[in-house]
Structures
1.
Amino acid sequence: MKKVLAMIMAGGRGERLYPLTRDRAKPAVPFGGIYRIIDFTLSNCINSDVRRIYVLTQYKSTSLSRHIQFGWNILSVPLGEFIGVIPAQQRMGEQWYQGTADAIFQNIYLLQQDMPDHVLILSGDHIYKMDYRKMIAFHLEKGGDLTVAAIRMNRTLSREFGVIEVNEDRRIIGFEEKPENPKTIPGDPEAILASMGVYVFDTEKLVRRLIEDARSESSHDFGKDIIPRMIQKDKVFAFDFRDGDQGGTGYWRDVGTIDAYFDANMDLVSVTPHLNLYDFHWPILTYQVPFPPAKTVWEEEGRTGMALNSVLSNGCIISGGSVRRTILSPRVRVNSFAEVEDSILLEGVEVGRHARIRRAIVDKEVQIPSGMQIGYDLEEDERHFTVTSSGIVVVPKWIKL
Amino acid sequence: MKKILLVEDEESLKLLYSEELSGEGYEVFTAENGKEALRQVDLVKPDLIILDIVMPVMDGMEALGRIMGKERNVPIIIHTSYPGYREDFMSWAADAYVAKSSDLRELKDTVRKLLKRGGEG
């Protein structure tokens, strides 16, 4: 069995998710009630038997480090397994990470210590379920220097992704970041292959290319610099995500914007979500405080505690209010006569009596006062909160209302 | 005149290399360890660095990483009699490796070649 080391990039600022990223890095943003975004990548690693993992952090990493420390202390160091959280250390000069490739370059000593055969480079920003073993097997079978995971997308989305061009042997012959006129898949003029930011490298090749990149004029980014240069001189292949997609729904999301984040959460309250969290063969692990079970109380005319088409986490009490198509994180309380619809309430939120909330994301610990309305008068909401172009209201953490 | 930073902790070798390189028409600056070398890189802005590996205070391998953080384009020659350095990934960042020897032809040739590659300006 070849030795694989995973390096998870968890240093992105997640600017477009502001204000959810005001106090936390993007991988630490809560998702789906009880998870943080990084739980999906970490769970993929564990479920794929990749159990030597470094998480590279940078901005606002306290929340992320704490989550991993509390929730992911599950591996056995004596068996050679670990999850190490590595903050940016400025080991090579006095700058923070300049790009994704620089983040790995500045941590070359970790590769030196571990001496893996292959390095699996991942992003902590994405939500998907993937068996990395299938990709590593493909990499070995092709005998390449680098394998890039690729997902089929409609060509109209090319401006958001790195677009891969392959030949019939799946060798990558072209790579463009966010092109206007993308190269489509041979035989399918409507589809493109988009890079998922998931890479398997042979260690020596990775180190050599990182050093070359570090010594040249470059933005030090895998997508912009390393891959385009490697396809010129090395053997680079594309692994079709469909061959490693756990669940087979083609689900992969870069929840990079508030709207994308909102939609990905709302998918979970549908009857058959694209992202199946109930596949017990592929558990998504997380850190959970052992709160008591969720409960609903009161059943009177106009004052019935109920939740319909919603996700409920432990510690929630719906006390005489109604909740529809909403994600409730742990320890949310919805009081009598309150109405919550199409929303995401993060941990510890309390909704006061007669308050009404719709199409909103309410960050942790916010107390919504009695009678307050959010999402019904967007002009008014804009004076206090972030409101996206599609009308999603974001109520930031610790705000006093 | 091209400026060379010679990083070497052993006094007698430092003198020898320094004189030989000056004789080739280079302006030679010296440092006795990695820490001193980093200071010199800032002060002198050398055109080329000859770097010993085993040194007190800060060794050449650590200095190499840090020099790259400051001046990523300056050519670096690892100049050592210690063979184990190639096991360190960072050594791959050097432009050339020359084993220490009493015959300085290889070192001089390598310096000439690298300075030429860097262009005349």
Note: The longest helix of chain B spans residues 11-23.
2.
Amino acid sequence: MDLEPESETGERLRLWFSALADIGEVIASAGDLEVLSGSLLRLILGSVTASKGAVLLYDPSRSELRVVARSRGVQLSPLRWPLAPELAAELLQAREPVALAQPPPLLAGYRSEHPALFEALGAHLWIPLATRGTLLGVLSLSRKFLGREEYSKSDLELLWLMGQNATLALHNYDLVRDLKETNFRLNRKIVELENLHEMGLSITSLAGLDELPDTVLLRAVSLCDAGGGTLLLRGAGEQLIVAAHFGLDPASIARAAAGPLARVVEAETPLLLNQPSEALRSLPCNKLVAVPLLVGGKNLGALIVCDKESRGGYEDFGEDDVRLLSSLTAQAGVAFENARLYRGALERERLEKELEIASTIQKALLPKEYPKIPGLDLAALTIPTRHVGGDYFDFFALPYGQLGLAIADVSGKGIPAALLVSTLHAALHAEVEQRAEKLLEGGTCADPLELCGLVSKLNRRVFGASTRNKYITFLMAVCNRKAGLLHAVNAGHNYPVVVRADGRVERPREGGFFLGMFESAHYPRVDLPLASGDLLCLFTDGISEARGAGGDEFGEERLVEMLVERRAAPARETVDAIVAELGDFTAGQPQYDDMTLVLLRAEEPV
Amino acid sequence: MVDKFQVSDRTDANRVVLYTDGYINNLGGDEIATRCYQHIDQGRKHFVLNLEKSKIVNSIGISILIEIIEKLVEIDGRLAFCCLTPTIAKTFRIMGLTQYAKIYESEAEALAAVGAD
């Protein structure tokens, strides 16, 4: 063989090598399929001076050829043409370019069926592009430029060689594309795992709790390629509230949550809705997946994402989406429950602190020491049921050796009751001080504090300060030991107990309405003698209604019996004895009401 | 669906800064791509994507961003991201976008990085 550069053979070989080198460059450089195919086509057309050509790729899943590159002279529509698998198999048998003037049987039939395709392509040769028994496509070439000559044997050999290299280029492209897609899918899985990991961290973290619903929802929407979604959580009253929303109108969600969507949430199992339904129309969206938030058997709500996107539009949600969302909600549910418990603990701590403060304030309202009035033995005790109670008592050392006593019981417990007690205390002290001053300026000892007027005024103050269902039972008494008199006004409180020195018991029943019930009320005064050895007991119903282990009440009778029995004892001893008896009676039962006891025993006047 | 995506842009010495607002999904990604390709057709090839107002991106949006990056690599262009949420930044790193397009805290840093011809 003469391989001198000037020889025909040498020239041909140089051309071949040059063409193959060019194809090699195209393989190495092109990233886009259309660009790659177009570059290959131009190279091949130029190498054999063909005037027209096209690259058609075969899709076995659709059994069709798709034109991905064509020379200027090819005017073709549509760009997709059916190609039966049998014909693809026939093309795979080729070991050289197929001359369409004498095609194999199936190709001949195909050409007859689709004359427009072959005419538009100007097809003269078809070079199957195949690798490893798989048809990737065909390279279609027209006659040589201006049809001046036929393809020579060496042209056909070169074309076959270039076709094989083009096949390699296209196959490499497919491999790289598949690799990229696999890499993309793997990276997506890593992103999903990373999101689940971060959601797991949020379970134990107390930071960002307020943003947690939005965070969970956005992660779910993003990971599922959804168009939007919502997170529904159960409120205090078990109704569903829209805790987060994205891409959906919150008003529509709220309406749907009260209607068709509620049934979806109550289902407590994941739900895939890819077909039209009432729930979908209610949002509105075309497809959704709903996954419940279940923690320890409790249904906290549901995570719903809608309208899964694809490059072409939308696609159905699948089991992978259900699995991903289930993993997300499993962790999110625990995070939400932890957040709820933490908030609850914070709230309890805040309330405890408030109760402590209120308790401190209320303790400060109670008398620190008892007035020392000659001829009067005084003792008292109050046991609140929670930090802050609604019972109150007070003493007032009045001019001319007189003693004022007050006892009160506010409806309700806790801070609201304590605040009302505080109001009563302030009003009572103001009134007593003012009236005591008037007494010093020349008032009458017969009614030193003008008790009826005082209590009426207190009533108006309490009425103005309290809410509808808040009222106070109140009893105020003034004791004038020297005169041997006791004056009392009762505003709905337990009847006082007067035990005479000889053991007789009196229960004065005169009185008026509770304080705060009506804006204006009348309160009669009762005047009683008070002789040496007489005992006055004021108490709240926390004493008389204290329950024993058997459910029975301590009772006023038992209290009176004890008072009669101990009427000669010092007041403090009697109070202690009653408290001890109460303790034995209730035997560790929980205390449901405040207990207050005030005892005044008249002694021999000094 | 509400929360419509928006993209705006400005040019700075032949660099383009794109500002996104909303969900970078199929539609959002397409709008970014359309805007980029328009600028590429006009000869600009250095881009900064400011995602401050985008809090969420899905895999469709990411695949479109990858296509834009591949196109820029072909024409020797540059792309930088700025003002990303930590979640999106982490996602971009995992998905490999940062091999070709770095992430910066501020727009100024990103502009300096992509430079100008």
Note: Chain A has three domains: 6-177, 204-342, 366-602.
